[in-house]
Design brief:
By secondary structure, the chain is α/β, with parallel strands linked by helices. The chain folds into three domains: about 190 residues, 3-Layer(aba) Sandwich (Rossmann fold); about 110 residues; about 55 residues, no CATH class. About 50% of the residues lie in helices and about 15% in strands. The chain contains 15 helices and 15 strands. It has a four-stranded parallel β-sheet with strand order 4-3-9-10, with helices on one face. Strands 5-6-7-8 form a four-stranded antiparallel β-sheet, covered by helices on one side. The protein has a three-stranded mixed β-sheet with strand order 12-11-13, with helices on one face. Helix 1 links the parallel strand 3 and strand 4. The chain is elongated and about 90 Å long. The structure holds one RNA strand of 76 nucleotides.
RNA sequence: GCCGAGGUGGCAGAAUGGUUAAUGCGACAGACUGCAGAUCUGUUUCCUGGGGGUUCGAUUCCCUCCCUCGGCUCCA
């Protein structure tokens, strides 16, 4: 197991990571409430923690990664009511879309997506435990957590209750003793989905599902909890309070990781601000790998600005600089096979290639500095560019050696994966070749006007040509419309 | 108001108690090319929010101020 450090939001310092029972790592990340289409901000958090899980797996840890799905809550009920759809069905529909987006983005490290409503017995048991231990009280069919009974409440966010209170939006919730008390079990209003409980029909509060799920799947204490920075207070604070109060064991979580917000037009991208950009739509327009690269090109804790018409264009240019040599190596290897004889690499190049993945691991092992690792890949791309013209002379194992750092990028960062666009390329290739051979003949006859006309026509069709000596390569300028 | 995260070149964005502060994008020039593109080479000069302090030396550590963003029970 590789040693690595991580910034823990609770202690506010970078700490060496030590699992409770090595090599196992229990990892939980707050998922979304799928009441609407996912936006670019959601994608960032998902990709950030995907890389964390991928890296841990590579480094010899056995990760069990759980991401919950809040499939019952006020927004779902409201949205379902507007559309005349059962909220649970609505949640399921949006979750399927999310899952598809994750698949496209290469987020495949999540082992399990538990739905809140599948954990009603655990939720009820936890609420009952809190009531019987005096940490929670029923009122008007609901149950509230008594924050005053949990003195360390606020430790994660640094919030002090007296200070927080001034800015608190005090909702008219009858029976609540203090404004900071949060709801564990919410009495059902007529027509709402509800479950039976000792306090009457109702549904779980937002915070309790996570600790009910982790209690069941990861135990009373586990290693790593992630989520967006906006969830730190009150959500994660509430998780700590209710879980530690219910089980009597602490700490609930050994390492808290919070991902920085994606900002758009100077503010956090969010539904309530109304500045959202669709995740699916952006993936469709730029391709999943460019979106992924955009996220990982910044440190996960920093705020990341999304500028329409600029950020992803820039990311595409930068990503292509890596993907192009990576792709040519993969193609060459597919053609030649690793067994083919040929020239070997000079010793210093081979040493650099085989050593780089390890140093990239070291870089990433310092609080998941993906940007610094990417910088290392750029340096390698430059070296590989020098070898691209000589690929056919190289042995299969030499090409494979050149590819090693890019394989690291694929395994850990999830970049350089074949996408639908490259599948489309295979279909188009024979057709494009027909035009190319006509153009090559024209060029041989120095009929450049004709050759340029063919090049221009292909460009209109979305295909850009690049002459490399006698050979001509082609690239799709835009994603195929689907 | 309180709590937290940030302020780095034209832009994005890393790192570090110490010779020229990564990397990418963009721009400019050269090589290559029939041209273009891609690639390579070079250039992009005084780039670390302001002011104090600690230090032989700070962008890095400490204090303070300013600015931006997030949270303060809807949030990834």
């Amino acid at each position: 197991m590789r040693r690595f450090t991580v910034y823990d939001s609770l202690s506010r310092e970078i700490r060496l990571f030590v699992p409770i029972t090595p090599p196992k790592v229990g990892m939980f990340v707050c998922g979304l409430t799928p009441y609407d289409e996912a936006h670019l901000g959601h994608g960032r958090t998902a990709v950030v923690f995907d890389v964390v899980a991928r890296a841990l797996a590579r480094w010899g840890y056995r990760v069990f990664y759980v991401q919950n799905v809040t499939n019952i809550d006020d927004r779902l009920i409201a949205r379902g009511g507007e559309r005349g759809i059962d909220p649970l069905k609505l949640a399921e529909r949006h979750f399927l879309a999310w899952h598809l987006a994750m698949e496209t983005l290469g987020v495949r490290s999540v082992n399990y997506y538990p739905f809140a409503t599948d954990y009603l017995p655990e939720i009820l048991a936890q609420v009952e435990a809190l009531v019987s231990k005096g940490f929670a009280y029923p009122a008007e069919g609901s149950v509230y957590f008594d924050v005053a009974r949990f003195p360390s409440y606020g430790a994660l966010s640094g919030q002090r209750l007296d200070a927080a209170r001034t800015g608190t939006r005090i909702e008219a919730e009858p029976g609540k003793r203090a404004p900071e008390d949060f709801v564990l079990w919410k009495a059902a209003r007529p027509g709402e989905p509800s479950w039976e409980s000792p306090w009457g029909p109702g549904r779980p509060g937002w915070h309790i599902e996570d600790t009910a799920i982790t209690g069941r799947l990861l135990g009373a204490r586990y290693d790593l909890h992630g989520g967006g920075l906006d969830l730190k207070f009150p959500h994660h604070e509430a998780e700590i309070a209710q879980a530690e109060a219910a089980t009597g064991e602490r700490p609930l979580v050994n390492y808290w990781m919070h991902a920085g917000m994606l900002q758009f037009k100077g503010e956090k991208m969010s539904k309530s601000v109304g500045n959202v950009v669709s995740l699916q739509g952006t993936i469709g327009r730029y391709g999943p790998m460019v979106v992924r690269f955009f996220y990982l090109n910044a440190h996960y804790r920093s705020p990341l600005d999304f500028v329409e018409g600029k950020s992803l264009e820039e990311a595409r240019e930068a990503y292509d600089r890596l993907a192009q040599p990576a792709g040519r190596l993969a193609e060459a290897l597919a053609r030649s096979g690793p067994e083919r004889a040929g020239r070997e690499l000079p010793a210093e190049v081979a040493t650099a290639a085989t050593g780089l993945p390890n140093s990239l691991d070291e870089t990433l092992a310092e609080d998941f500095n993906s940007r610094a690792a990417i910088a290392g890949l750029f340096g390698w791309a430059r070296t590989v560019q020098e070898w691209l013209p000589h690929l056919d002379a190289l042995s299969g194992s030499a090409i494979s050696t050149l590819e090693a750092p890019f394989r690291w990028g694929r395994d850990v960062l999830g970049l350089f994966e074949a996408t639908d666009a490259s599948a489309g390329r295979e279909r188009l290739d024979p057709l494009v070749r027909v035009v190319l051979s006509a153009r090559t003949r024209a060029r041989e006859r120095k009929e450049f006007a004709e050759a340029d006309r063919l090049r221009a026509d292909l460009l209109t069709a979305g295909i850009r040509l690049e002459d490399r000596g006698a050979e001509t390569e082609w690239h799709a300028v835009r994603e195929p419309e689907s």
